[in-house]
Specification:
Elements: H1 2-15, H2 25-42, H3 44-59, H4 61-71, H5 74-93, H6 107-147, H7 149-161
Helix pairs in contact: 1-2, 2-3, 5-6, 6-7
Length: 165
């Protein structure tokens, strides 16, 4: 019940703002603070960790806004969110055991490989963007080879097929 009042207060506060100032930071911080207070009753350590993360995000919000609005393209932002969902949402939910009678198909292991390939591809893209195409591919190839040669080859093949190399 209290959460409904907090959400309603955030919504009303947002609607009463000037049309030019449509930043949701205050409203999100209000709801997050309430949720952390509720979480602190059952898991205080997790509430503290998330609270520190929220405080850091609020402290760096102008730099984050600059990054999102002026540095990253919309596709880069969507790709980053897709990677975060694959790594932080889907991967922990998958069972870490074989599902077939032969013990060969482990969804967690397979998806972890997908996340590693996505991460190496993203690292290669960032390296290319920062160091240029010639040196970026070398940096990405070396770093990928240290993590997983197979995943590095797969990420490089994907980049060359997409025409980004």
């Amino acid at each position: 019940m209290a959460g409904t009042f907090v959400a309603a207060g955030a919504l009303i506060g947002h609607l009463q703002r000037d049309q030019r100032d449509r930043d949701l930071t205050g409203e999100v911080a209000l709801v997050a603070t309430f949720a952390l207070g509720v979480l602190a009753h059952t898991n205080p350590l997790l509430a503290l960790e998330i609270g520190v993360l929220v405080a850091a995000l609020l402290a760096y919000r102008s730099q984050i806004h600059h990054l999102v609005r002026e540095t990253l393209s919309e596709q880069e932002l969507l790709d980053g969110i897709s990677f975060a969902i694959a790594a932080a949402v889907v991967l922990p939910m998958l069972p870490n055991r074989a599902l077939d009678p032969f013990g060969l198909f482990n969804p967690f292991t397979l998806w972890r490989l997908v996340v590693v390939v996505m991460g190496l591809s993203a690292f290669g893209y960032v390296a290319q963007r920062l160091a240029g195409a010639r040196y970026g591919l070398v940096i990405a190839g070396l770093a990928g080879g240290l993590v997983s040669a197979t995943a590095a080859v797969a990420a490089m093949a994907h980049r060359s097929r997409s025409g980004a190399a």
